[in-house]
Amino acid sequence: QCPGIEPLCLDLADWDATEAAVGAAGPFELLVNNAAVALLQPFLEVSRAALERSLDVNLGAVLHVSQIVARQMIAQGVPGAIVNVSSQASQRALRDHAVYCSTKSALDMLSKVMAMELGPHKIRVNTVNPTVVMTDMGRINWSDPQKSAAMINRIPLGKFAEVDDVVNSILFLLSDKSAMTTGSSLMVDGGFLVS
Questions:
Q1: Is the pTM of this model over 0.85?
Q2: I want to staple 157 with a disulfide (CB 3.0 to 4.6 A). Which of 103, 148, 175, 190 is the partner?
């Protein structure tokens, strides 16, 4: 759909490969960190492997890719915007989501620190925090009708988010229409957090 976009396929947990690929791909003015994993396990059964993979992808990759891109933005002397895709799970405990909730909470705080430190360089940093989104990952983790009904019943708008709901929020935060917005979390949760 977008011929000017060149995808880079790499393991974001491999910092050397990421540095080489992303470093050579610039210059950048905008960044969306959207890579994530949701390895759901009850708290008492959380494995070290699930914890490490989740930290590597949901937090470490965001930190590292953002460092690479922000350094390029600063070197160019141009303003920029970074949007990190977080989750409503950063704000509300969910059963079997101990690791996921924790990594998304950490991402929200990382984003606030980034906003504070990158603001003087005219780089804005925000998060979008969606409810369940009907992606492949969302369908896998919320395919049980009993589980999904319990969540939907807590969402005042009565439905999960579609991809466009999140994309439109990201586009707003990347645009000049949000020029005074940094360090914020935009909830795309259908009202879940107010219920």
A1: yes
A2: 190
